[in-house]
């Protein structure tokens, strides 16, 4: 049985990690879709698809369940979005998501859904973590150690600060 999980992962954080550790107990293989793959270098989406693939792959090195990380560009045609996704991924049996639009689209395509619980949503959200980076607050404890390394390697915090400036 294969399970699918999608997010933008800007950045990949401990909430995503907790959800995926739970999914790993329930399926034989995990497919992780990196959404809005075409976006990077903006305030809501500072990291490239490739950088996000690196964060996820490194963070899941010891998860003990085979996984595939697949960038998926936005289609901006919701009625065709499930077909777009499934054209890019290995076949899967179940989609893990709490996003109401994603739930609706998969339900209409007769694909099973499971909604995992949220972990510490106030601190563990991409938005909150990007805000901490901008303000110079501690963000490192919100992401897996492997993600800290990737963000340091690509100088991600300076990038986010630079793109937040105006000319
Ligand atoms: P952003 O604030 O940038 O939207 P995000 O934290 O919501 O970031 P996404 O990449 O948008 O992260 O989310 C991917 C998936 O992870 C979504 O289905 C979202 O509901 C889920 N998710 C986000 N934060 C948590 C969390 N703390 N615990 C469990 N699931 C989470
Ligand atoms: Mg989100």
Record the SSE blueprint:
Layout: E1 2-7, H1 14-24, E2 29-34, H2 49-59, E3 67-71, H3 81-88, E4 94-96, H4 100-108, E5 112-114, H5 126-135, H6 145-153, H7 156-163
Parallel strand pairs: 1-2, 1-4, 2-3, 4-5
This protein binds adenosine-5'-triphosphate and magnesium ion.
Adenosine-5'-triphosphate binds next to helix 1 and helix 5.
Describe the protein.
This protein starts with a strand and ends with a helix. The protein is an alpha/beta fold and 167 residues long. Strand 4, helix 4 and strand 5 form a beta-alpha-beta unit. Helix 2 packs antiparallel against helix 6. It has one domain: Rossmann fold. Bound molecules: adenosine-5'-triphosphate and magnesium ion (MG). Adenosine-5'-triphosphate binds next to helix 1 and helix 5.
Write a concise synopsis of the structure shown.
By secondary structure, the chain is of the alpha/beta class. The chain has 7 helices and 5 strands. The chain has one domain (2-163): HUPs (Rossmann fold, 3-Layer(aba) Sandwich), CATH 3.40.50.
H/E element string? EHEHEHEHEHHH
Q: Counting H and I runs of at least 4 residues, what is the number of helices?
A: 7
Residue runs with pLDDT of under 50 for 5 or more positions: none
Shape: globular
Count all strands and give the number: 5
Largest sheet: 5 strands, parallel
Q: Report the mean per-residue pLDDT as an integer.
A: 97
Percent of sequence in beta strands: 5-15%
CATH class: Alpha Beta
**In what order do the strands lie side by side in the largest sheet?**
3-2-1-4-5
Distance between the termini: 51 Å
Looking at CATH, the homologous superfamily is HUPs
What ligand molecules are bound, each kind once? adenosine-5'-triphosphate, magnesium ion
Number of domains: 1
Structural class: alpha/beta
Determine Rg (CA atoms, Å).
16 Å
């Amino acid at each position: 049985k294969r399970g699918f999980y999608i997010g933008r992962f800007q950045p990949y954080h401990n909430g995503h990690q907790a959800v995926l550790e739970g999914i790993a107990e329930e399926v034989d293989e995990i497919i992780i879709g990196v959404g809005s793959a075409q976006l990077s270098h903006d305030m809501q989406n500072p990291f490239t698809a490739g950088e996000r693939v690196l964060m996820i792959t490194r963070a899941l090195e010891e998860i003990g369940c085979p996984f595939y990380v697949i960038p998926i560009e936005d289609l901006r045609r919701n009625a065709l979005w499930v077909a777009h996704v499934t054209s890019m991924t290995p076949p899967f049996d179940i989609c893990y998501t709490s996003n109401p639009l994603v739930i609706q689209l998969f339900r209409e395509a007769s694909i099973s859904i499971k909604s995992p619980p949220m972990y510490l949503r106030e601190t563990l959200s991409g938005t909150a973590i990007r805000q901490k980076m901008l303000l110079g607050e501690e963000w490192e404890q919100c992401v897996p150690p492997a993600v800290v390394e990737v963000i340091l390697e690509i100088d991600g915090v300076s990038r986010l600060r630079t793109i937040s400036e105006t000319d």
